[in-house]
Amino acid sequence: MEENKKVNLNVINVALMFVGAIMGAGFASGREIWQFFGVFGSKGRIGVLLTGILFVLLGTMTAYIARKLGTNELGRIIVPGNNKKISEAVSWFMAAILFTVLINMTAACGAMLNQLLGISPAIGGIIIALLVVVTVLGEFQRISKVFRYIMPVLFAAVIVVSLMVIMSGDRAAVPTEGLKPSPIAGNWILASCLYISYNILAMIPIVATSSINARSERAALVGSGLGGIFLGLLSFVIVNVLQMDMLFAQEADMPMLAYSTRYSEAAGLIYSVILFASIYSSATSNFYGFTTKIKEGPKKSRIVICAAAAAFLLGLVGFKNVVAYMFPAEGYLGFIIIAMIIGNFFYIKKKSKQDVGDEKYDPFNLPEPLIRVTGGSGGEAILILGSEKTGLYDCGMACFSDRLIENIHKVLDGENRTVDYVFMSHTHYDHIGALPYILDEWPHAKVCGSKKAAEVFASSGARNTMVSLGKAAAEQFGSDVEIKADNLRIDVILKDGDTINLGEETVTAYETKGHTDCSMSYLLVREKILLASESTGVISVDNFMYPSILKSYDDSIKSARKLKKLKANYIIVPHFGVLKKDMMDDFFDSYICAAEAERKLIFDGISRGLSDEEIFEEHKKVYWSKKRGEYQPYPAYKLNTEITIRLTKEDYNS
User: Fold this and answer.
1) pLDDT per residue over 79-117, tens digit each?
2) Which domains can be identified in the chain, with CATH numbers?
3) How do 390-393 and 538-539 pair as beta strands?
4) 63: burial class by Cβ within 10 Å (0-12, 13-18, 19+)?
5) What is d(CA 212, CA 214) in angstroms, rounded to the nearest whole number?
6) Under a CB-based contact definition with an 8 Å cutoff, are residues 457 and 475 in contact?
C-alpha cells in the first residue's frame, strides 16, 4: 500500500540512492568490475550489458513491492506470500549480509590509504567505521541528504576521470596469460550472474526504503529503473578503462585509482577523493539496512557501535581477499534471494490486480444483510437488517445527519421498520457525531457500546471536543447543520463476547482497544461478517494503510491478532468498506507492520532529540495528503497525531 513519503524523494533522488548503495569501494575502485567483467576481455563487456538490464529489472521489482506493501521490512519485500517464519529467517540473513558490506568497506578504505600514503590499513578502516556510525545514528533522513549532495558529484567525476584515462591512449597489448579470474567465478556468464546476485543483497534495503520515501509511485519505479541504467553506464565506462592495460589492472588492489594516478598526480588525487566518498556512501547505506533489524531503544546506539567495531576487525583480512572470496560466495546465496524477489513481484502484482484492478469491485457493495446508508464523507454508517430487529453501525459526522436520516428512511419506511439498536465502534465525532440526530428521529433505539464509551459521553470536555471538530468538518464540507453533542448515551454496555440478537442474526461484540479505550468490533455470527474497529487498521482512498493509534500500540496489535483469529468471511474496514477476499489474507499482518513502522518513526524522532512539533512534521510527510483531507479534516488529523506522539513518548520513556 502506498502514500507520499517521509523524505519526499524525486526520480533523480531515488536513482542516486540506488547508485550509492552499489557504487562502493569495490565498484568505484574497479576491483569488482575487474574481477567480474574486465578479466574476461570482450565477453566481460557483454556481461556488463546483462548486468545493467538485471539492475533495471530487479530494482523496479523491488520498488514496486515496497510501494504496494508500504514497507521496507526485508522479509516481506523478499518472501512471496508473507510466510512469517521464512520472512523472519530471510530478514536476519539479509541483515548478516549487509553487515559484511561494512567489513568490505573498512578493508577498502584501509587498502586505499595504504596504496596512496603507505600507512597501516587499520587507520583507513577506523576512519570509515567512525563516519558510518555517526551517519547511521542520524537515521534515513541524514543518509538521504548525504546521497543527494555527494552522488551527483561522484557520478560525474567517475565519468570525467575515466574518459580522461581512455583518451590518453595509453594502451597495452592484450595478454594471453597471467589473468586470474576468481576461483569461484571462473567464467564470464557465472561471474556476471554472481555480480548481480551479491549486489542485489545490498540493493534491496536502500531501494525499498527510498521507494517508500518517494513522492509518488512513478518516482519510485522510474527512479529505480534509472538507477539501474546509471549503474550499467558506469560499469561499461570503467571496464573500458581497466582493459587498456589488463596486467596492470590485475596487479593493482584498486585498479581505477592506479590508472588515474598513472595518468597524473592530480587525477589520482581527485579519484582518491571519489573513492573515499564512494566507500562512505555504500558503507552507510548498507550498514543502515543492517541496523533496521536492531530493536529501537536506548541500547541501540551501543549495539551499532559494537557492530561497526567488529566489522573493522574482520576487515583487516584485506580488500583483495574480501572481493575474491566473500563476494562470490555471497553471490551464490543471492540467487535464492533473486528467485524469491521475482516470485514476490508476480505474487504482489497479481494480488494488486485482484484488489484494485477489478472494475466490478466496489468496496461499498456490502454483503447481506448490510446496507450502506452513509450521509457523506468521513465515518461510515451501515444498517444491519436482521429478520426481526434493525441495527445501525455507526452514524458518521453531524454535518451529514440530514442525508443519513433520509437514507435510512428510504430503506426502512418501505418495510415498516425502525432503528432498534445503534452499535458504536467508538466515541469519535466522525463515527458518532450524528448520534444525537438519530436519537431525535428514533428515540427508542438502544445505543450499544463499551463502559468506557459511557464515561466519555459523560465528560463535558469530550462533548466540547466533538462539537469543535464537528464544526470544523461542517465548515470544510459546506454544511449548515447545527452541530450539537447532547443526548449522548449508552443504553447497553457491552463486554468482550456479549451478543445482541436481531432475529436470525446474532451480533457478537469484541473489545478492540488501541485506537481508543472504548473501541469495539462486531461479528455477525451467521455469515461471519466482521465490522472491524479503527484499532486494527484503516485503508485510505489511495490504498495506504494508516495506523490510527491514540491509546496503545500494544493494545492495538493485540486487537488485530484477536480479530485475525475469528477467520471472518468478510471484513468491513472503517472509512474503506469491505475487503476483497484476496486482501483479507494478510490484512491484519499488514496493519501490525504499519503500526510498528509508525511507532518506529516516532521513536526515531525522539532518539534524535526532535521536539513534538518536529516529530509531527515528520509524521505529516508520511501520513497526510490531499486525498486524506477529502474525508478527514486537517484539524482532526493534527489533534489525533499530537495525541499519538504524546502516548508514544510515554511508551519510549518507559
Assistant:
1) 887 666 787 788 788 778 778 777 777 887 787 777 777
2) 11-169+185-350 (1.20.1740.10), 370-593 (3.60.15.10)
3) unpaired
4) buried
5) 5
6) no
